[in-house]
Here is the input.
Amino acid sequence: MALIVQKYGGTSVGSVERIQAVAQRVYKTVKAGNSLVVVVSAMGKTTDGLVKLANEISISPNRREMDMLLSTGEQVTIALVSMALQELGQPAISMTGAQVGIVTEAEHTRARILYIETDRLSRHLNEGKVVVIAGFQGISSNGELEITTLGRGGSDTSAVAVAAAIQANFCEIYTDVPGILTTDPRLVPQAKLIDEITCNEMLELASLGAKVLHPRAVEIARNYGVPLVVRSSWTDDPGTWVTSPKPQGRSLVNLEIARPVDNVEFDTDQAKVSLLRVPDKPGVAARLFGEISRQKVDVDLIIQSIHEGNSNDIAFTVTTPILKRAEAVAAAIAPALRSQSNPKSEEAEVMVEHNIAKVSIAGAGMIGRPGVAAKMFATLAEAGVNIQMISTSEVKVSCVVDAAECDRAVTALRTAFEIEAGEQGSKGAGGAGGEFLTPHSARAKRPATNSTHYSPPPVRGVALDMNQARIAIRQLPDRPGMAAKLFGLLARHNISVDMIIQSQRCRVIDGIPRRDIAFTVARMDGENAKIMLTQVSTELGWGEVVLDSAIAKVSIVGAGMVGQPGVAAKMFEALAQNRINIQMIATSEIKISCVVAQDEGVKALQAIHAAFGLAGSEKFVIPA
Ligand code: ASP
Ligand code: MG
Here is the structure.
């Protein structure tokens, strides 16, 4: 007998028939000997309808009243689902977030869960009832008993948080798609269902997975080791398991990260190889990393900054023991790259730096919080640490710094983000290896991949983000504090930054060493960011601020790429074969992202998806 939380999304409870079908499934699960908590969304597009009503009355409705309004949607569903269960002879009781005691901060329309009371829940469960809980809502902790909501799509978060609080064996998320797919099936009809994915991979795929699973829910699942499965409520197919490493017995108080960053990682065993002035055209990165992978060199971070004239800089880090080999490959290939393009151009040059370290902050709490990266840069600036290289992913910011400054950097970051030393594994959020949790019942059903030594594939999924714009600032003075100023400014204007890349090439102008920096923001923020940055650029001694809105970001994610040479090369090769030029590259341990021209985004996605053999034979039909 298991204790299970089942969550049903809007379309799964979109009509009376659907509610009856849900009741049948719940009833069957109980009859199979399980205890059940059911968390539901508002019926169909109810919440959208309520938002529309509010907007007809006010262009910026009061946030407290908005919560009062939106929370009603789920209240309808819980009552109807309970009635449907009672009709089947199954004892059931509906409860609002407040009645359960889902206690949140008092932030209307975007509250985070602080803790969940379990007494009332347990009492009803022990009496043999199914408890049907309204998702998406809670009650404030400030004594005012204010109704709060968790933000759109928040019922997933309610469900996983309840599962963590009552220590459920697992949590099932029922939706209208069969699970998590390798990519967006509207763009790649051959997208395939993924059987299993780790929480860390899921978080890096946020832009792909967010429509199916709220990233905050994934974060809670990871932190508390709640096995999750995403399935269709129309079929009995097994869906996609989202697995977590064994939890570390985290407190259930302040359940949803009060901290945006949950780990500070560092690696001092690194060296950096840069190739300066390689031609800006398709195939260059493919050639370089193809050769590197043939030599079995495993690279860690890769970055390619924006081009200057018609050449690029590409830099990568490797562990010190294989530096010699990496350097040899780069040196061998540099002249060839030059003569091929423009024999008269300045010579491509290889630059090696030995004494470097990588320091990173990691945590899903940084998604959508622009101040987090800025705080990292400000902290490093205050500690007098200069940043040589920045690379970002959805849930991580990594900076390459001088090895001698690593300790200072880590100490300062731990203090700033309130991370105790040794609180978590110090290195690698990749999630490869380690023991992953899935319920025994599910294990039995799954084929060969279920041993504890299961090694994940190098690429689990491919995501395309067409809603970004790129901003480049030329000739930023290269000294501590510049990145902090820049990203601090953006954060104060509430502009979230996604990918950040600092150029390798350093030029001395007016006696000051300078580098370019480029980053991507949501397209709708592009124009504002440009205007705002241009206003301060002279005062801060920056060069030109350039905006390019016609970009696309394509990313591959997979925990299995850790320690596997050749994955990046394969991605770059797929782009090269399609004559797609790479404008920027940024990587984390389990993700590689490339910026390409917007009109080549879909082609890039399709080529990469095919190159990694992710295509299935079945075509997905997307429900309207
Ligand atoms: N009903 C809410 C929404 O539409 C919460 C949810 O369904 O997850 O955003
Ligand atoms: Mg949803």
